[in-house]
Every structure is written in structure tokens, then in C-alpha cells.
Amino acid sequence: MQVDTLVLNGIVFNSYFKQFRKENIAIKDGKFFYIGKKGREFFQAKETVDADGKYIIPGLIDIHLHIESTMVTPATFSYGLIKNGVTTIVPEPHEMANVFGIAGVKEMIKASNNEVVDMFYGIPSSVPATAMETTGGAIEIEDIEELLQTESIKCLGEIMNYYDVLTKPDCKTNQILDFVRNNYPELIIEGHVPKLLDDELQGIAFAGVGSDHTHQTVEGMMERIAIGMFLEIQEKSMTKEVIDYLSANPVKEHFCFVTDDVMADSFQRRGHLNVLLKKAIAMGMSMEDAIYACTYTPAQRMRMYDRGVIAPGKIADFVMVSNVADFSIDAVYKNGQKVFERDLPYVQRAVSKQFPAPFYESVKLAPLKAEDFEVPIETEKKSVTVRTIHVQNGSTFTEERQDTLAVEAGKLQWMNSAYCLVKTFERYGKNNNQAHGLIGGDILKKGAVATTYSHDNHNLLVVGKNKADMQLAANEVIKNQGGICCVYNGKILSMVPLPVGGILSEEPLEVIASQVEELTDALKSLGYEHYNVIMSLSTLSLPVSPALKITDHGLIAVNEGKVVSFEVLGR
Predict the structure, then answer these.
(1) φ/ψ (deg, to 5) at 186
(2) Is the distance from CB of 51 to CB of 7 less than 8 angstroms?
(3) Which residue, of 314, 335, 545, 556, is most buried by count of CB atoms within 10 Å of its CB?
């Protein structure tokens, strides 16, 4: 029997029995042809590989992530994924869609088409995430229709504006859901429903949302599974209680592991979905269940029935590892071809101008002045009570607090307070909106930082303790057509240029990872205390993440779904 490749003496993972077996594998036309005891005596192969007792598992599959969160192009992302054993992903490009609308989605898909990793896209469903922010683009029902007709789409991406879904029957998100249910009833609908329980959770499920990837508790997981909702477990949800519950109960078909957002430095240094696989095993989950949750169940959730298992007729994506527990990867195969080997060079080269020219001209802001960081107060009082955003390490959620600050000559004396000023500037040239607030807690204690990498609207967000540093940081970002700049005492400590849409770099992964690591260190040196300082910073403008955030429309009370005043009225 003629085949392309014969892999001998492997310890092969059988997903259907969830067990390892010592077997040989024959591959033909990029697919698994045979798994069993037959070897050289039966097959004639163009290439024979001796696995020498190594474990062979299906290529890892991540069905919920945002490439833009790593601030790299699809080409760079694919390069990083392969060496970590990830062979298929379902990215949702709502960051690029917020900047460029449907053109952003199409260009991300186009940039992914010829990469090694298979990238099947989700359509951004919530662009903008709310009506309380200005974005560069939007995704409308006609855009969803066009993408479904012209592109390789796996799902409707996460429904984020859960408040409107539950309280505003005629809102844009409900119109999208109605359109999908009526015209594409088989389309998978992904969800973003943090903390919702009972009737609110079931209202979201009734609307058609079939999954949740947000921060989980055991109580929340039990309620979600009970109503048929699929769980996508991020690393931040991997607490002892959560892993113990998933390991001890018969719920293995109802969850998978996903990465969602991975910073470039973590991607380069730690890895990707393989990190969660190793962590689950270290926390007590059996290696078989952990592999299952990174291969079989994500494939099933996205109805990718041609992968996620090692079986005849399935795509021959697989990983060879010496030890499953530490997941030390020896080789990665895609469509039956070796695409990574640990002992051989694996080098990425820089490629510039991968996107159309307008993608490098998206920051339409004139240089800012020092007075742009003053806070005028229309009052004769010597003090005023204001709302403040409180940041706490351990979560990207914030709290609303209130405090009374001094006023002199009609200006808030924020520079003499315990708080940073946070300002956002609409940067698409649409309305010149600005908004301000105060922010405290585990945030900067000195200096300033400015960024156009600010979810999901990606307007210019500036946080700082003094006007001069804020002005310098902001103008450096504007000059570079996007990025993240950290400043202290008139000196630029770190700058990460993000010229593609103000959110992506075209540098190789190693370079952008080093830049992000340097930025993280700089922010921490200025007193920012957080397990993920960049994500904490960038989600200050995310108006679907509780509880008090800021957009160019003003301060957003997320749980109430409305803009609230900076000054506390009546105080």
C-alpha cells in the first residue's frame, strides 16, 4: 500500500477513548490514512519517520482569540502558533473592524489566507461594542451578509453588549441576532456574558448566544452548562475550584480552553494554548482530558469535523512531544508536512506594507497641547465631588468610587491629588470628541502613558500624573501613527510603534515581544501594579467590561449601560 508518510512507534492519542496507544500512523494526501499496528511490511512510504516512543497528539485548536491583542499581523501570529503546536484557530478581528469596518475584516482574512496555520474567522458582531463611543468603522447587517457570502466564516463573534440585548428589544445587537436566527439559523453565535446568572443568563441564551468565554466561577459554569451553553475557559478562569470541578464532573463535552488575548511578550516567552494545556495538567486535570479540551471539543464546537482527532480521513495536523506534562515539542506537522522541528532553525523575517496604504494613516489628530490636559470646572466652589475609576490588580474590571478634590481658578487640581488624569481623544477625524476622568488604585504613581491600542474603539487614551508627560506621550503616539508610549519626567522610557491601524506592528515576533516587555517594565517602574498592565490599560476604554470605564463620550456606567457625569450632581 503506497502512502506519503509513515510514522512508526508513536504513542498516539485516541480522542474517542481518551487514551494513548502505541501505534503507527500512515498519511496520504495530507490526511490520516491508517492508525494501527501495520508498518513497513504493509506500507510503502515516500518518507518514514521513527517517533521513537514520542507522544503524538492532534494539533491544538483555539476557537476564541483576537490576533490584534498580540499586536502582530496574521503572518507573525501563524509563525508563533506553529512552534507552540497550534495548527487551527478561529480569530475574531473586532479590533481591526472597529478601526476600518468590513475592510478591516476582509484585509485580516486576506492576510491569513496563505499562512501555515488554518485561520477560520468569526464575524465581529459588536462593532462598535456600544453606541457610547466613536469608532473608525462599524459592522452592519449588510456587512455580515456580505462576509457570510464571500468569506470562510465559522461563527458570529462574541455578542458583547449583553445589557442592550436584555433591555432594548430594538437595539442594533438584537437586530443582528434576529437577522442571523431568521436567515442563518445554523450559524454558531459566540457570547461575552460576564457574571450573568439566572433569568438574565437565560435571556441571553434565548437570544441565541451559545457560549461564554469570560471569567468563570463554579456557580456560573454550572448554570451555563445546565442551559446548554458551551464554556471557553481562559487562563484567568483557571482557578483551583474551576479546574477541580471540570476534572471531577461529567462535563468534558461542554468546555474547551481558549486564549482570547495574549500579549506579544507572553506569546514569545511562554507560548500560547499549550500554556493552558500544561497548566491544566499541573493543576490536577488528567493529561487526556486536557488534550481533549484543546483539540476535540473546540473542533466540535465550531463544527470542524475534519480535525481535532487522529483518525482516518481527518486532516493530518499533529504534534510530537517527548513529555505531555511539560509539553516539550519535538515536531509539528500540518497537513502531513513537517513545519517545525525543535533542533532546526526557525527564523522569521520582517515583511512590511502587508496592508493597503490607508491602514497606515488612521490617526487623524493634530499635536496636543498642555492645556488639553486641564480639567475645567464650572463652579464657584473651592472643591467638587467627582466619580473616579478604581483599578485593582487581578482583574480588568474596575469600580466606581467618589472623592472630593480642590478647585482653583475654575480648574480641578488633579495634579495635587492621589489620582491620575485619564483622557480620551477621538482619533478618526469624525467629531473631535474628548472626555476626561480620574483614576486611582493599582495604576501609575508617576509619569504618563498614551495608547491607540485601547479596546475596542482604539481612540487615543492617555493616563498620567502631570500635563507635560501626558502631552509628550500623546504626541509621540500621534507622530508614529499609533502605538503605546510611556514617559517619565520629560523622557520617553518606552515606545511600541503600531502603525497598522494604530494597533498592529509588522516587526517579527521576537522584536515586538521585546518592545512589549520593555513597555511592561516601564509601566511597572512607574507604579502600575497589575498581572497584565497593558490589558488593564487598554480596557479602561472598554464599555462592556464592568464597572466604570471611559470613552470619547464620557464616563460609562457599564452595568447601567449609560454615560454618567464626571461631577457627582447635587454634591
Answers:
(1) -90, -5
(2) yes
(3) 556
User: Do strands 562-564 and 460-464 pair parallel, antiparallel, or not at all (unpaired)?
Assistant: unpaired
* Structure-block grid coordinates of residue 39: 508498518
213 to 69, 158, 263: CA distances (angstroms)? 16, 9, 18
Predicted local confidence at residue 291, as pLDDT: 98
Whether residue 157 contacts residue 125, with contact meaning beta carbons closer than 8 Å, is answered with: yes
Phi, psi for residue 82 in degrees, rounded to 5: -60, -45
Q: Kind and range of the H or E element at 220? A: helix 218-226
Residues with Cβ within 8 Å of 353's Cβ and at least 6 positions away in sequence, in order, are 360, 506
DSSP per position, 497-516 = E--BTTTBB-S-HHHHHHHH
Cis peptide preceding 290, ω within 30 of 0: no
325/237 Cα distance (integer angstroms): 20
Preceding omega of 128 cis (within 30 degrees of 0): yes
Copy the grid coordinates of residue 510: 521576537
Distance set, CA 133 to CA 223, 430, 451 (Å)? 32, 12, 16
Distance CA 426, CA 435 (A): 9
Confidence class for position 571, pLDDT limits 50, 70, 90 = low
**How many Cα neighbours within 13 Å face the side chain of 299?**
24
Cell of 531: 498581572
DSSP-derived 3-state class of residue 216 = coil
Distance (Å, whole) CA 299 – CA 290: 14
Burial 475-512 (b: 16+ CB within 10 A, else e): bbbbebbbbbbbbbeeeebbbbbbbbbbbbbbbbbebb
pLDDT per residue as tens digits for the range 373-430: 999 998 788 999 999 999 999 888 899 999 999 999 999 999 999 999 999 999 999 9
- Answer whether 539's CB lies under 8 Å from 546's CB: no
Q: 439 - beta bridge partners?
A: 389, 420
